[in-house]
What we know:
The protein contains 21 helices and 16 strands. By secondary structure, it is of the alpha/beta class.
Amino acid sequence: MTTLTQTSHPALWLDPKSSVGSVEREQLLEAGLQLLPVATLQDLKLGLARARLVVIRLMGDTGLLEEVRKLTQAFGHAIPVLCRVERNQFELGIEAMRRGAYHVLSADDWSVDAWRSALALAPTRNEVPKNSPQTFVFVDPVSQHLLELARRVAQTQVSALIVGPTGAGKDVLARVLHDASPRRNGPFVAMNCAALPENLIEDMLFGHEKGAFTGALKEHRGLFEQAQGGTIFLDEIAEMPYHLQTKLLRVLQERKITRLGGNAPVELDVRLVAATNKDLREAISSREFREDLYFRISAFKLSVMPLRDRPGDILPLVSQFLSNYGPDDRQIRLSERAAEMLQQYSWPGNVRELQNVVQRALVLSNSDMIDEADLMFDEWESHAAEPNKAIELLSAPATAETTSATAIEDGALSTAVKSSEYQAIMAAIRSSSNRSEAAKKLGISPRSLRYKMAQFRDRGLPLLAAA
Ligand SMILES: Nc1ncnc2c1ncn2[C@@H]1O[C@H](COP(=O)(O)OP(=O)(O)OP(=O)(O)O)[C@@H](O)[C@H]1O
Ligand SMILES: [Mg+2]
């Protein structure tokens, strides 16, 4: 496609019956559609990251529409789907609208006006409310399985425990549990047990009556009461002080709560969801966590896997973050090499790190394409704890058996030069708000800075984000 107008929108085009002729294609282009024809659902799935719109031709029933809707939902976006039906299949058109198509056109309608208004009607991705359940990504089979399980658990009333490493999506899953439950119209109240001083947690959770203690001028409804009819989410439950664990256990057993300084217990209709990134069994053996509480909250345990164990989520997440944080008026794409790097990286900071990387890339990239040089991964302790790793890797990238000491002793001058170059560049980046500023400080062009960064990255050196 060479003659793109500025306003053209990529539209995936699936027509099992016939292909589009060049005249029709030009007409659609004039209406603002850049056709991306696909032959199978698999190709359609691969193209979703690039599409503004999906256009499908229905052959007698809505089966294809249902398949496509499943794909776009799993993908995490409500990408608008337009259905083409035969002119005499009025009923089918109505059925398609009922099943989620945003618009229907006759299969032989190529008029610029009809397509232009169809495009204008298409809801944009940004109209999908952020944080609504369908904006989360569960594409990899591992994640689909977890989502399925979470939806089933959501139907029950018992407590659930979400475990998983940092940044993997425990908060997200807690939200899914609430949104998929019969309590979805009730409140979702969250508290992070690690974020509050010990003496406040009790008051926050259970509330107090007026005059319960000096300074209690008004009565205060605790979070449990605020969550009536809904879900209470206790994040980082392992950080809950031991004596409060006892109290929490009692509340869960009795389903009643008494405010501090009060004597009339309040009946509770609240579902507890807890989360932790710690191994609670270890905390139990070191007597930091009550075993009986563990049994009570972990009737349903949901494990969120590290991102590296569900690689199928990586690109769909990128595409979602690009559309959440990228410019509204155009679409930012990933170069093939960048996509490869994102898929190969080990993601110690999981989805949160991926989100950071995409946000940084949007700042660093100065075109509509994100390239490998725009990718800056988070700095991790394991790297930071080895300050000489830079030197090691620079001196002997292939056989990195050299210890840091010998690297310094044996290293040629070039090693020292390279390592101080690395340090100088990192220092400049650390003290700059973007890469062009860093390049200016270093007295080199942004282009050579990119090149150097790419070299460092190839050698596995940790790269800092611009401050
Ligand atoms: N499946 C997903 N789809 C879209 N965004 C996600 C998904 N999972 C996580 N995120 C995003 O990644 C970030 C981290 O997720 P979340 O806060 O749920 O992780 P967490 O496991 O609770 O982390 P922590 O251990 O630090 O509490 C959030 O901004 C969240 O919106
Ligand atoms: Mg969390």
